[in-house]
From TrEMBL:
PROSITE patterns (UniProt xref): PROKAR_NTER_METHYL
UniProt KW keywords: Membrane, Transmembrane, Transmembrane helix
The organism's taxonomic lineage, starting at the top: Bacteria, Pseudomonadati, Pseudomonadota, Gammaproteobacteria, Vibrionales
InterPro entries (alphabetical): N_methyl_site
Domain of life: Bacteria
Transmembrane segments: 21-44
Organism field: Vibrio agarilyticus
A Pfam family: N_methyl
Protein name as it appears in the record: Prepilin-type N-terminal cleavage/methylation domain-containing protein
Length: 267
């Protein structure tokens, strides 16, 4: 009887051991689990990298779009033909319009009215200057006349927007077919530059905007050697054009943004 019970107990032990895992099975399970974990980790890492790349790409695109739109808007509201480039197209400068209007030469007087200042009697700003029919950047610098402190004449309180500003006609150089006049301030001159910290060709830099002694960065990661500002003066068969080329680099990927801006040249 005792031997029979012992035999049955031994069989039970063998049966219990047969339901567990052998060393080989444990090793195979660990290997398979490790492969699965590595695969899942790789997928997560790839997805994360793709997300980061997408965010960086959108940031670069937003920078370029903002910079180009700002430049286009300012260029189209600048004094005609007041554009100039330097450093082989690395910098572009121009003079914004402070106000504009129309004029008439009456005897020895140069009388003009303004769009923004139509309800303003003066005096005009001390740093404002007047120009008629500028044909190049140097004209704005050398052929303009000061209107500092000028006040309106002939104002009728019963007539809205009446009156005009007056200068000595001989002081104003040039004439315009459209009789347009532009007022500006040298202190408001704007300059965009492609700036790098090194002369190396592959060095990334910044796009900066300077005005009135203040400089701000509009875009980073700019491949300055592949970016350029080009000004094409007006001719008989086309208007003045400014070609903007902005190349940005992110994670070894370069994006080129180009924009042609038609600028006013018929003052």
């Amino acid at each position: 009887m005792l031997s029979g019970k012992t035999a049955r107990f031994s069989l039970g032990l063998r049966k219990g051991f047969s339901q567990g895992f052998t060393l080989v099975e444990l090793v195979l399970t660990l290997v398979v689990a490790s492969v699965m974990v590595l695969g899942i980790t790789g997928i997560i890492e790839l997805a994360s990298r793709g997300y980061v790349d997408t965010v960086d790409r959108e940031r670069v695109q937003s920078q370029a779009q903002f910079a180009l739109e700002k430049m286009m808007r300012e260029l189209r509201h600048s004094v005609p033909n007041s554009f100039d480039t330097r450093d082989n197209g690395r910098c572009l400068k121009f003079i914004p319009i402070s106000d504009a209007g129309f004029y008439a030469r009456v005897n020895d007087q140069f009388q003009f009215i303004l769009a923004k200042q139509h309800d303003f009697n003066g005096p005009l700003a001390n740093d404002w200057r007047l120009i008629v029919n500028p044909t190049r950047y140097e004209d704005v610098k050398n052929k303009s006349v000061s209107v500092a402190g000028l006040e309106k004449e002939g104002v009728d309180p019963n007539v809205p927007y009446s009156g005009h500003f007056t200068l000595n006609s001989s002081n104003v150089i040039g004439d315009s077919v459209a009789q347009r006049v532009y007022l500006f301030s040298h202190n408001n001159e704007v300059e965009y530059c492609l700036v790098t910290s090194s002369a190396a060709a592959n060095t990334l830099g910044r796009l900066t905007r300077s005005q009135a002694g203040s400089t701000h960065t509009l875009a980073e990661d700019v491949a300055a050697s592949e970016s350029e500002f080009e000004y094409l003066p007006s001719s008989l068969n086309r208007v003045g054009m400014i070609n903007l080329t902005l190349t940005l680099e992110q994670n070894g990927e370069r994006s080129v943004y180009q924009q042609a801006v038609a600028v006013s040249n018929v003052p």
